[in-house]
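Structure (tokenized):
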């Protein structure tokens, strides 16, 4: 099974992590009991909490922190640069020294639907749900259900619905 798994020695993984084939992990941290689907890339300095599910074809870039009990649907993409460029103003290829990583935080219990794009410099609140195909351009409140491009609040969970879930 390890024939099609690329995990560099600097990856930190807790016990019980499940890895599918065709993944690329380097310099990241993965919490215990987390499941990583096929064709997922997780870049250096990204942090994934415990008991998370990262579905296939997702991209988690440097600067992303995902807390515990988070669901990431298929083909979810995170962005860590608001103004990406290939070259510097003088025409040279950009290097790591030419840009600053922009952070994104996904709080505990959040769910991100398939095909969503999460821009940098946002916080997705606890237990929030991001609809499939949404583009998240700003912070999402805790317990909110958001959808669209740009994603906007549709409604909030009622306390009685949340009482069955860990907070």
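Design, position by position:
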């Amino acid at each position: 099974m390890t024939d099609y798994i690329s995990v560099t020695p600097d990856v930190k993984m807790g016990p019980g992590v499940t890895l599918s084939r065709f993944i690329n992990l380097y310099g990241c941290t993965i919490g215990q009991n987390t499941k990583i689907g096929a064709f997922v890339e997780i870049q250096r300095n990204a942090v994934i909490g415990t008991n998370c599910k990262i579905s296939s074809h997702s991209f988690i870039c440097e600067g992303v922190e995902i807390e515990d009990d988070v669901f990431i649907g298929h083909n979810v993409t995170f962005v860590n640069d608001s103004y990406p460029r290939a070259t510097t103003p003088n025409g040279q290829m950009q290097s790591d020294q030419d840009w600053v990583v922009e952070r994104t935080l996904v709080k505990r219990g959040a769910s991100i639907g398939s095909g969503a794009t999460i821009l940098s410099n946002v916080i997705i609140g606890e237990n929030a749900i991001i609809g499939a195909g949404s583009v998240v351009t700003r912070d999402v409140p805790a317990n909110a259900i958001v959808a669209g491009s740009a994603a906007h609040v549709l409604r909030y969970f009622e306390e009685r619905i949340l009482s069955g879930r860990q907070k």
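Reviewer-requested clarification: The CA atoms of residues 36 and 124 lie 20 Å apart. The two ends are 36 Å apart (CA to CA).
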